[in-house]
Specification:
single chain, binds zinc ion, alpha/beta, five-stranded mixed beta sheet, 10 strands
Length: 258
């Protein structure tokens, strides 16, 4: 039986071949390695549309722990660079790049900004939003992290950012990670959601939470034929972390958008 994660096929236009002037010229062929078949190649462009690095999504073969197989992500070698001493280090500019950043910047600089920008968890949900909703969406590639530099890309945006949180708390993999003393993952992904909320608030952006009405994430929701309006509102209280001492809620604690 094919894995559910195999269902979504990346649209070719979101993963165009490298062009002249791109820093990253990686292709599925050049990035193929033993971790498993590449299902998606996500190119990251800077504000000028120059491709800086790529991330690949791989499907790992079924194992005892994950009988249906599992997904994993890798960065291409352009993500890091050599510093003056010749050590490979993460380029801070690459760390803060958002997926579809060149489109995001165009939208924010436009005379008529979009009323809503969706901030999704992962490139797959972001692309599903572009394809199926024709709305602006972006995501960080850092998973749980969202740097202040990432938030800076939204500066000047007068509309509303909706953070669409995954319903990870319904997935066995995440329940196991939550219950494991060693991994101590947050639950249900709330620390990451709050980090984004806090970083965006800090630069004066209006921000609220949503979640899928069907399935675990925005992609499931849209593939099930649900609309933007059918996304479920999630209040700040519902996204409370079980532990995250560094989140300063300020005066906005507990306030949702209805
Ligand atoms: Zn590359």
């Amino acid at each position: 039986m094919p894995s559910k994660s195999n269902k979504y096929v990346q649209r070719a236009k979101y993963s165009p071949p490298p062009k002249k002037g791109d820093v990253c010229d990686c292709t599925r062929q050049s990035l193929a390695h033993s971790v498993g078949e590449i299902t998606h190649l996500y190119p990251y462009f800077d504000e000028n549309g120059i491709r800086q690095f790529s991330r690949t999504r791989h499907l790992m073969p079924p194992s005892e722990k994950y009988p249906k197989g599992d997904k994993t992500f890798r960065y291409c070698h352009h993500y890091r660079k050599d510093d003056e001493q010749g050590f490979r280090v993460t380029d801070p500019k690459n760390e803060s790049l958002l997926y579809g950043q060149h489109k995001l910047i165009d939208a924010i600089l436009a005379a008529e900004q979009p009323k809503v920008i969706l901030l999704t968890e992962g490139e797959g949900c972001c692309e599903a939003c572009w394809a199926l909703l024709d709305m602006h969406a972006t995501t960080t590639h850092l998973g749980k992290r969202f740097t202040e530099a990432s938030a800076e890309h939204f500066r000047g945006y007068k509309g509303t950012v909706l953070i669409v949180v995954d319903k990870d708390h319904e997935e066995q993999k995440h329940i196991d990670a939550f219950n494991d003393e060693k991994t101590k993952e947050d639950y249900p992904g709330s620390a990451a959601a709050l980090r984004k909320w806090k970083a965006l608030k800090k630069i004066g952006v209006r921000v609220f939470f949503r979640e899928a009405a069907v399935g675990k994430d925005l992609r499931d929701h849209l593939e099930a034929g649900k609309t933007f309006a059918q996304l479920k509102k999630v209040t700040l209280d519902e996204v409370q972390p079980l532990w995250l001492a560094d989140v300063d809620f300020g005066h906005a604690r507990g306030r949702g958008d209805g």
